[in-house]
Amino acid sequence: MANSQRGISTSLIVISVIVIIVAIVGVLAYISMTSHPATTTTTTTTISQPKKIKVAYVTGGDETDQGWASIGLKSIQTLAQLYPIDLSISKNVPYPQQEQVLRQYAEAKYDVIITDGGQFISTVINVAKDYPNIAFVIMAGANLTLPPNTVILSPWFSVKGMYLAGVLAGKMTKTNAIGVVMGEWYPYISAEFYAFKEGVKSVNPKAVVYPVVAGTWGDASLGFQLAQSLIKNYNVDIILHIADLTGRGVISAAQQYGIMVIGTCDDQAVLAPDNMLTSVMLNKTMYYDLVIKSVLDGTFKANYGGKVLNLDISYLAPFHRFDDKIPSDVKQLLTDLQKKIETGEFKVPLIITESPPPPS
């Protein structure tokens, strides 16, 4: 009996030891699993951030012209809200400092350098050659040979709007005398002037167009004097200005003498609501958008580098207080002409000269 009880005790001891060992092994396995999770059950997600580019915007004016420089600044600031851009703006850059400013941006490794004005053309071409990995953008100019990292709009960029404005002026003048005040005479300015003049002549062969070049884009006082001279000496009753801040003086003269004026680049009716017949608008956002997107996706050189783009970004602003003064048949004529130009049925004459013509 004693042997039998001894045998039972021994069995119990063995079973107990086995249970303890199994428990210890289980605890160790659990600790191992929690300390070192199996890699097959771990998923890592990486969220890619959009590429950010550095964009420099260089202009010879500022918002005070409420035209060329103003609309350019608004355009680039709008795009800076839409795309991953670090934007730097340099305003009122004088001629002698152009190259210095552009090279500073280039040395700081900006991805895109945009210059807004024909006065920058030669400087950009000279600087761009030294920085082949930077995209240089010129707002508008002539048909030039460009470095492969530079793009520019051709003189076609605003002829549609200018031609339509000329048609409107030719129909609305009572004295058959129309003035044009320009800041300076560049090839693309000549294209704008002649597009306007051809529009006038197409509907009113008797009208005479009087061109005046101020020699500056930033002197409102001189703009006033030139417009005053046109009004007093030639009895003009409509003046188009292509003169930026100088054009502000033209608008003031139109108000003082009670004649009609045509603005440029932005809707300038706010400056002279009772005198502003219309404005030749420029959609600069369209142009800059093309370039910035191509830099972001790496297609700039393939699509635009070294090219002169025949992109017309112009159109007429609303007529505002002149809406009920412009005959319905004139409005319809403008609508029909715009469609014909846009479809290619009619092509605005592109005329470029080195110097302004006499009145005709």
Walk me through what this model shows.
There is one protein chain. Helices cover 44% and strands 17% of the residues. The protein is an alpha/beta fold and 360 residues long. The chain has two domains: 53-157 and 285-309, Rossmann fold (3-Layer(aba) Sandwich), CATH 3.40.50.2300; 158-281 and 313-343, Rossmann fold. It is globular. The chain starts with a helix and ends in a 17-residue tail after the last helix.
Portion of residues in beta strands equals: 15-25%
The neighbouring-strand order within the major sheet is 2-1-3-4-5-11
Assign the CATH topology of the largest domain.
Rossmann fold
Number of separate domains:
2
TL;DR?
This protein is an alpha/beta fold and 360 residues long.
What labels would you give this structure?
single chain; 360 residues; Rossmann fold; 2 domains; six-stranded mixed β-sheet; 12 strands; 44% helix
